[in-house]
Every structure is written in C-alpha cells, then in structure tokens.
From TrEMBL:
<keyword id="KW-0413">Isomerase</keyword>
<feature type="domain" description="UvrD-like helicase ATP-binding">
    <location>
        <begin position="11"/>
        <end position="436"/>
    </location>
</feature>
<keyword id="KW-0347">Helicase</keyword>
<feature type="region of interest" description="Disordered">
    <location>
        <begin position="535"/>
        <end position="556"/>
    </location>
</feature>
<dbReference type="GO" id="GO:0003677">
    <property type="term" value="F:DNA binding"/>
</dbReference>
<keyword id="KW-0238">DNA-binding</keyword>
<dbReference type="Pfam" id="PF13361">
    <property type="entry name" value="UvrD_C"/>
</dbReference>
<dbReference type="InterPro" id="IPR027417">
    <property type="entry name" value="P-loop_NTPase"/>
</dbReference>
<dbReference type="InterPro" id="IPR014017">
    <property type="entry name" value="DNA_helicase_UvrD-like_C"/>
</dbReference>
<dbReference type="InterPro" id="IPR013986">
    <property type="entry name" value="DExx_box_DNA_helicase_dom_sf"/>
</dbReference>
<dbReference type="GO" id="GO:0000725">
    <property type="term" value="P:recombinational repair"/>
</dbReference>
<keyword id="KW-0547">Nucleotide-binding</keyword>
<dbReference type="GO" id="GO:0005524">
    <property type="term" value="F:ATP binding"/>
</dbReference>
<protein>
    <recommendedName>
        <fullName>DNA 3'-5' helicase</fullName>
        <ecNumber>5.6.2.4</ecNumber>
    </recommendedName>
</protein>
<dbReference type="InterPro" id="IPR000212">
    <property type="entry name" value="DNA_helicase_UvrD/REP"/>
</dbReference>
<dbReference type="GO" id="GO:0016787">
    <property type="term" value="F:hydrolase activity"/>
</dbReference>
<dbReference type="InterPro" id="IPR014016">
    <property type="entry name" value="UvrD-like_ATP-bd"/>
</dbReference>
C-alpha cells in the first residue's frame, strides 16, 4: 500500500465483536468459529484502543504462529491505521519474539548475542550427520523400509518429541528401564501376540463362520486360553524380585495386562450368535486386527496400546544416545532449537531480576490462533501477561480448529486461561460472515462430541432456510454397524447412496457425492475401495510426491 494512502474506512463491529472490543479484563479469551472474523475482531480492538488513547501503538504486541500470518497482520494493520502508527506496533511470531528476547538478554544468560537458531531442517541434518559419523549399535537394524533416510526420519521425530516435552537426556536415561526389564516386557507382548494369532484369528473356523453353538463355545475356549496366558504373565511379575516388580515401566505393563484381563471377561460375555459382529471383538481387541487388515500402528485397542508402549520404550533406549549427542552438539555450537528458544525466553520472564523490565515493554498483548499453542508457548504468554502491572492479554482462536495435536498443541489453551487468570472474561463469536446458513446447519448437526459452539449466518437465525425444505439431515454411520475397515465403510455408504438404500436419504447420483478425508493416505484407501466396487470417482488434490507451494510454505 502507498504510504500516502488514507486508512481504510472504519468497520462497525457486529454481534459479540463489540463485547470483545469493550472488554476491560486483564485477560479476554475469544472462542471464534470459522468465518466469524477472528483476526478482524482482534485488529478492531487494537484500532479502537489506540484511537481512544488507551494505549500507545509502540506498547502493543501482536503474536501469531507463521511468518506468513504475521506478514498478513502487518498488512492489515497498515491498511487500518496511519503509517507511523502501524509501524510502531510490534507484530511477531512466537519464535521471533523469543529470539529477540534471548538476544537482548544474551549476556545476562551467558550467551553471545550471535547465537544460532536450529531450524527443523537443520535439526534433521544434525541427526543425519550423527547417524553417519558415529557407530550406534542400533543403526545396523533400521525401521520402516530399512533405508538410512527412513531411520533418520524416525530418530529425528524422536528427538523433536523429547525436545518439545523438555526432557533432558539425563532424565530420559534415568526413566528408561534396563535392558533385561525391557526384554522381559517384550517377551510378554510376543507371547500374547502369538497366542492371539493361534486361537483368536479368523484362521480359526469358529470365528470365521460363527453361526453354530459349537462355534460360540470354541470362541469362548480360545478366550479362556488367552486369559490364562495373561494371568501367567501377571504371575511372573508378581513372583519377580521387588526391584523388577516395582519398576515404573513394569507397573505400567501390569496395568495394561489387568485391562486386558477385564476385556477378556467382557468379550466372553458379549459373544452372541444373534449378533455376528461380536466375532470381530477378539481379534480386534487382542490381535490388533480389524476387518482382516493388520493394524500395526493402531494404538487404540488394549493390545495395541501395550505393544506400542513397549515398542516405544525399545526405540527410546536406542535413540537416547543420539538425543544426548544432539544436545551436546547444540551446547558446543551455542545454539538453540525452537523449543529451547521458547523455554529460555519463558525462563527470562520468570526471572524476577529482569521479568518486569521485559514485560514493561508492552501494555497490551494480542495472540492470534491461540488454539494452536503448545504448553511451552502457553507458559511464555502467561509469564509475560499474568500478574500485577503486566500487559493485558487478548487471546483469540477457534477450539474446533485445533489441528496440530501431533505437534503437542492443546485445544484447551483458551479454557486454561480462565483457570490461570483471576481477572478473566470468555467470549464466544458465533456470527458467521462466510457461509450460508444451510452449510452452517450441516456443520452444527454433525454434533461433534467436542464441538464448542454453534454457528449462524450473519442476518439469519438457526433453523431458518431460504428454500421451503430444510437441508438433508446428517446421517452418521457408526463404525461397528459394518463389518469393514473405515475405507470400505465409506465405499459401502457411497454405494448405498447411489442405490437409494440409505435409510431416510433419497437416492443420489455420482455428482451429488463427495468424500472428504484427512490425509492423502486415507484418500488412496478410499479410492481403492471405490475402485473395487466399480464406483466411478475422481480424486482431486496433488499427485503423490508433489506439494503445492502454499502447503510447502505452511510445512516449512
């Protein structure tokens, strides 16, 4: 925008946006649904606060996640305010804010201000270099497809997780069980896995056909045999020396075995010839197999959780040495990775000698997309703003759009503000400016178990439609209604829609049906299932191996 251009025309707040602007609490959290104008509402509050003389622009800090988002906010601020006013506002990502604070107080911390920040890409290069240059005993047997790159990916993910969780190498080694303890736990898992294959798989005639009384008895006998093995494993633990029996990991494994025992009893009672789908329970819960498909990565079944836990401990023992060497590399090079950078800045804000000086740089702090904060970032903002004489905080986000749980983010971040701050107000924005009410009603009726709000179109009320008839209601297909894996369930449901055999839903044509999936992998599975049923379909999106520039930017 030309520096001489006048500010944009004022925007009048609508719905509860006005409540956000007028809130005078020390902490205001805003749960704003999709299309409700999250960033616009935040910027309206900044604009009004400056116009009213409540705050000087140089005392305003706006924090968001990605560089692109920060640039977008800077551009929006420049459009709303006079150039000199807009330039005085600090707009920053979490990482750039922490980099600034640590650099400003580097000598106080005992570092050079020229310290290096290790990006995710460089972290992976460090891990790869360590694996190439040092002889780790486990490296001879890699994971995945067996390639060095595959092993480097696995170790890098482990290093990233440990760093994000702030687990020091020494603490990690101390928490891990010794080799013999881990080997015994692995033996329990192998015994149970083999026994499930022998007596609870569909190679067993009883569970394959499951239509006669003798099938029911045979299936129950298999469960009794499996339960006997669980009891034997637990007896071995109970009879072991106290040092083994009282090990934290062994207690965890015994807890998993106890749950498996209860499941055996429940499944024994649930097996019923009149409910043939119950035959799926033994191999799903104890064999970690669903619909004939092996699910090595499933962690939701009782046995799957136990297997994953023991396997992760095995990998942790292998990778702990690399993690320690990674930390030594950072210390030697006087470098910080992103997680350590945020923690160091947070420690500064908790240091009474300098905390007030740092926090005194701002009077108002605004956090965008707060649902994507992880525990470390939450603590950073809390240390900066919580307490007498600290800046006021406005945190805005959408709890229903928290998508980075795999990176440690916590969708409860907005709720936790109410627990952390005494002077707090929570506001919900439900007025949608982007979508038609028919679309919003469809979303609302999905009734997600953890959904936080109900959206409505600006100028429309819930339950009102432009057409005479309301939109088709949402039909939920429970996963246990069909004897198929998820992709096959989707294909079966599509087939029913096309044949007009879905209850309470009229027959549909091909162009009426769309399948939305979370990942490309899920898309491939669904496409394969549709192809098997000879259902014509078109798969949209990028081919495997090609990433759209916008997605590449987000991933970086």
């Amino acid at each position: 925008m030309d520096s001489a251009s006048p500010p944009a025309e004022p925007i009048e707040p609508r719905g509860r946006q006005r409540d956000v602007i007028e809130s005078d609490r020390a902490c205001t959290s805003v749960d704003a649904g999709a299309g409700t104008g999250k960033t616009t509402t935040m910027l309206l509050r900044v604009e009004r606060a400056i116009e009213r003389g409540e705050v000087d622009p140089e005392d305003v800090l706006v924090v968001t996640f990605a560089n692109e988002a920060a640039a977008s906010i800077r551009e929006a601020v420049a459009e709303r305010l006079e150039p000199d006013v807009a330039a005085a506002i600090t707009v920053s990502t979490y990482h750039s804010l922490c980099h600034r604070l640590v650099r400003e107080y580097a000598y106080y911390l005992g570092y050079s201000p020229e310290f290096e920040v290790v990006t995710e890409r460089k972290r992976r290069r460090i891990v790869g270099r360590l694996l190439a240059e040092r002889e780790y005993a486990f490296a001879a047997t890699s994971v995945g497809d067996g390639s060095p790159a595959d092993l480097a990916d696995a170790v890098d993910r482990f290093v990233a997780t440990m760093s994000r969780e702030d687990i020091a190498p020494a603490d990690l080694r101390e928490r891990l069980p010794d080799t013999r303890t881990l080997e015994l736990c692995q033996e329990f898992v192998h015994w149970l896995e083999r026994r499930a294959e022998e007596v609870l798989s569909f190679d067993n005639e009883a569970l394959r056909y499951f239509n006669r009384e003798e099938h029911l008895e045979a299936a129950r006998e298999g469960l009794v045999e499996y339960g006997t093995l669980i009891s034997y494993c637990r007896e071995k633990i109970a009879e072991a020396p106290a040092a083994f029996r009282e090990d934290e990991v062994v207690r965890d494994v015994d807890g998993y075995l106890r749950v498996l025992q209860r499941c055996v009893t429940n499944v024994y009672e649930a097996l019923d010839l009149d409910e043939p789908t119950t035959r799926q329970l033994p191999r799903a819960l104890f064999g970690n197999r669903i619909g004939g498909t092996g699910t090595d990565r499933i962690e939701q079944t009782p046995f799957g959780r136990l297997k994953h836990y023991v396997e992760y401990l095995r990998l942790a023992r292998h990778y702990a040495e690399v993690y320690a060497d990674y930390h030594e590399t950072l210390e030697r090079e006087r470098a910080f990775d992103f997680d350590e950078l945020v923690r160091t800045a947070t420690d500064l804000l908790a240091d009474g000698a300098v905390a007030d000086e740092i926090a005194g740089q701002w009077e108002q702090v605004y956090c965008d997309e707060f649902q994507d904060t992880d525990a470390t970032q939450f603590e950073l903002i809390a240390e900066l703003t919580d307490g007498p004489g600290r800046p006021d905080l406005l945190a805005i986000g959408d709890k229903d759009q928290a998508i980075y749980g795999w990176r440690g983010t916590d969708r409860r971040g907005l709720d936790r503000l109410a627990e952390r701050y005494d002077d707090h107000e929570g506001i919900e924005l439900e007025l949608n400016f982007r979508s038609r009410q028919e679309i919003l009603e469809l979303t609302n009726r999905c009734a997600y178990a953890d959904g936080s709000k109900t959206l409505r179109e600006n100028g429309r009320e819930h339950g009102t439609y432009e057409a005479d008839d309301p939109p088709d209601r949402v039909v939920k297909v429970e996963s246990d209604e069909l004897d198929d894996p998820t992709a096959e369930q989707v294909a079966t449901t599509v087939s029913r829609l096309l044949n007009g055999t879905c209850e309470n839903v009229p027959e549909r044509s091909l162009e009426d049906v769309a399948v939305i999936v979370r990942t490309n992998r899920h898309a491939r599975l669904v496409a394969d299932a549709l192809r098997e049923r000879r259902i014509p379909h078109e798969r949209s999106g990028s081919p495997r191996g090609r990433i759209a520039p916008g997605i590449r930017t987000l991933l970086s």
